[in-house]
Write a structure and sequence with these properties.
This protein is an alpha+beta fold and 79 residues long. It is built from one helix and seven strands. The chain is 15% helix and 27% strand.
């Protein structure tokens, strides 16, 4: 079952998402923001810490988010 916005809001306000920004809530999702730690396995697979990152066609990155999400055991998420 997809969780609706009122469930996401209550979850976040009770400590499920830190930091929580109400304007990031959508009807059935929450927009996370990228952090500043990156790994680009299509280049040299080293951890990079920077505020900006240029992604070229065909490249893949792994990144941290600014939010910390405490997912309950009975809920799944898609990033």
């Amino acid at each position: 079952m997809i969780k609706p916005d009122h469930w996401i809001r209550l979850f976040a306000e009770t400590g499920g998402i830190t930091p929580f920004k109400p304007e990031h809530i959508n009807p059935a999702s929450y927009d996370v923001t990228l952090g500043n730690t990156w790994i680009c396995p299509t280049r040299e697979p080293e951890e990079i810490v920077t505020e900006t990152f240029t992604l070229f066609p065909g490249e893949v990155i792994l990144s941290t988010t600014q939010e910390y999400i405490k997912m309950p055991r009975d809920v799944v998420a898609d990033l």
